[in-house]
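> example.struct
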């Protein structure tokens, strides 16, 4: 969906709407001539760094392992957003208080990547009224739209380096095509009846829809939700009725949600199949420290546990 936001430049309001991008491109303000790009989440920052190369400085507001659902903005975040030439957000209410700061403080170009034209969010219950699921990046083909949105924002804000942004984007998009094919190949080795996962919260609905996996979470799409005894009983019954082989922790959620995953495993006699990365990448320098590495780690972990 197109996103329309107001951006203040030199005390005047102006509006620019284009494929989910909004804002008035700020002039390059860095002493080294590079534009400054602020990304809210680690997944978005990783893609931005790939496309930026040496032509732009990318700053990520969230640290590795931080949960964007419960992230509380710091004063430094407002300053970074206000001074950025480009601000990259997920949208769909993922970033908690940061969304309001972007709306009120951003003076540069703003790209709301999950709200671009061509991306149709999943509701909390497919086909029903409910909160839009913000975890769009879990579908590699949708993440390609994120990358295209980042590319277009960089080109708009920094046309002098447009050729480099486009070239790096083309190469990265080809890598994502290969990743998508690899994920499909891996899950083809798991019998269809066994492609069922239970995780700490509903972060994998786009992944499941894209790759033919049935997904259940201890809680819904936000980690701020609380699980009830009935929720746990429902999952335990599901494990027994469907013969589910494993449940999974998530790395960026509060420990209490992972404890409930372990409770389901213990009460049903199945195992915890491993830890999945959902709302944040792993530590930089590790396998899951990049978007591609995160998807590969999650896929391998699930497939090995479910076969």
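> example.seq
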């Amino acid at each position: 969906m197109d996103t329309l936001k107001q951006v203040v430049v030199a005390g005047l309001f102006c509006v620019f709407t284009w494929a989910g991008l909004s804002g008035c491109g700020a002039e390059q303000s860095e002493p080294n001539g590079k534009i400054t790009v602020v990304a809210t989440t680690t997944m978005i920052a990783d893609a931005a760094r790939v496309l930026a190369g040496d032509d732009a400085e990318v700053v990520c507001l969230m640290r590795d392992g931080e949960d964007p659902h419960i992230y509380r903005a710091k004063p430094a975040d407002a300053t970074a957003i206000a001074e950025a030439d480009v601000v990259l957000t997920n949208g769909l209410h993922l970033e908690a208080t940061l969304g309001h700061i972007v709306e009120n403080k951003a003076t540069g170009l703003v790209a709301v990547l999950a709200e671009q034209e061509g991306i149709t969010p999943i509701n909390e219950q497919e086909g029903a009224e409910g909160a839009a699921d913000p975890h769009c990046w879990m579908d590699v083909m949708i993440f390609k739209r994120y990358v295209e949105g980042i590319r277009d924002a960089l080109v708009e804000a920094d046309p002098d380096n447009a050729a480099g942004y486009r070239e790096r984007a083309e190469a990265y998009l080809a890598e994502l095509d290969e990743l998508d094919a690899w994920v499909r190949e891996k899950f083809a080795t798991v019998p269809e009846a066994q492609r069922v996962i239970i995780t700490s919260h509903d972060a994998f609905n786009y992944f499941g829809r894209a790759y033919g996996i049935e997904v259940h979470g201890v809680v819904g799409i936000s980690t701020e939700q609380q699980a009830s005894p009935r929720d746990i009983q429902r999952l335990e019954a599901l494990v027994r009725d469907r013969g589910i082989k494993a449940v999974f922790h998530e790395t960026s959620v509060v420990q209490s949600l992972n404890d409930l995953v372990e409770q389901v495993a213990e009460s049903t006699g199945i195992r915890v199949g491993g830890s999945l990365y959902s709302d944040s990448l792993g530590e930089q320098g590790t396998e899951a420290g990049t978007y591609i590495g995160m998807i590969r780690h999650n896929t391998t972990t699930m497939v090995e546990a479910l076969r």
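> remarks
The radius of gyration is 20 Å.
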